[in-house]
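Q: Could you predict the 3D structure of peptidylprolyl isomerase?
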Amino acid sequence: MIGMCPGEYRKITVPANHAFGNKVIQIPDGRHLKPPVTLIVHATLIQIFRQTQKEIDSAFNIWDTDNDDRLNKQELLNIFKVFIQIVGKNKMGNLDKMLDQWFGMLDVDHNGFITKNEFLKSEHTAADPISIEMFQSFVKRYMSMLKTTSSTRDKKLKDEL
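A: Sure. Here are the predicted structure tokens for peptidylprolyl isomerase:
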């Protein structure tokens, strides 16, 4: 999928050792496929969710309001306050619980700070579908705001925090 653009079609061949291994596969018509089974996937890319390194770096730098190259819990709380404006308070649920959940997920070494490296390597997902929806909405909004002119971008986003 690397290098694909939205709407692009590809035929992807997955070798047996990466597809089903030694499993016998039952297909809907009742037949069984015995190993080794090579999987061929016909895929059309619908949407790209992962942002570029540059966009993520820019967002992290904006969220890092004390410019120490790491996010503390208060900075993450400030981000959540912007989430509330974007997705609405009724979708937030328990803010303290959600803050603890996200901080625990992003602070990989549990030292009380989220470094840029931890932020970039994290999966950015949560078990709670509303959290996922909230994060996706938030990232989408921020990434579109990052495309504003560079002279007003930082001020505009810092003012929101």
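Q: Anything worth pointing out?
A: Residues 123-130 have pLDDT under 50 and may be disordered.
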